[in-house]
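Running this now, will post back.
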Amino acid sequence: MPSIKRHKFKLSSEQLLEMLYWLKLIRSFDERLSILVRQGLVRSGVYSGIGQEAIVVGTCYGLRTEDYICPLHRDLGTFLIKGVPAGVMMAQMYGKATGLSKGRDSALHSGVPELGIFGNTSMLGANAPVGAGLALTFKLEQSDNIVLVYFGEGASNTGDVHEAMNFAAVHKLPLVFICENNIYSYSTPIEKSMAIEDVADRADAYGFDGVAINGNDVLAVYQATQGAIARARAGEGPTLVECKTYRWHGHSEHDKPFYRTADEEAVWKSRDPLPTFTSYLRGQGVLTDDILQGIDQRIRTEIDAAVAFAESSPEPSPEDAATDLYA
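Update: finished.
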């Protein structure tokens, strides 16, 4: 069985700082959304990805526009790093006419084909067969584009995910399965839904490589994903990358996570991917106080502008209710 390429994929100082920018932008976007939800200004359901940013950045950084992603409801950051402007994404959350769905749907179901983003559905895990279909198309077209499919550890128990893994293995599809294992399926802890410790072990049953990594370490996620992508582009088939992490908020902003303990939350927050990566960059001599202040100021400006754009955007027009509908 071929294994993930273990050699290091080198990153320049500029690329490392760019990864820090994305981590901080995505965190700031989610934090502002949480505030806007409490103010009653956001109409979409919000499923915060705070705490899981390293997975978004580590998997999406360096993707081509033509490479497809099938993200989860908690992965709004994948839209940003794939090229959707923060203002458009914020307008989507407000349900405004300038959002991706033009005010017709929540953020969770929007996609951007020209940027290689397939919209998620409310049935978690159902995007895996779709990703397999996209990957089959790339193989039939003899292109070297690849597909990333995201799902949680709970969805890894569904038939859709297993059927997609089997199909991808049989046809050696250019597909990377990204499992965001945050140890809770809504309120169900992982030990109540799985008898194995690592979701990655399931890859072996289908005949391809799987690896479990620290999902809060952006460089570990990047290296594992790049190895899997290299295999996929070379025609060596799929890989399962399991990223172990933790969501800081409840399943959604309306969920009070009474099923967790304060001690458990404190342990995981001590593993926050942002200060961990910041300290690493300082240690490498890549990051200075001036650079960090510049990044933070840039992000404050961009988030403020995104909110202002959303708030000043027009409401959906009743006359356009049937536009872009197909039956």
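The two ends are 45 Å apart (CA to CA). More later if anyone needs it.
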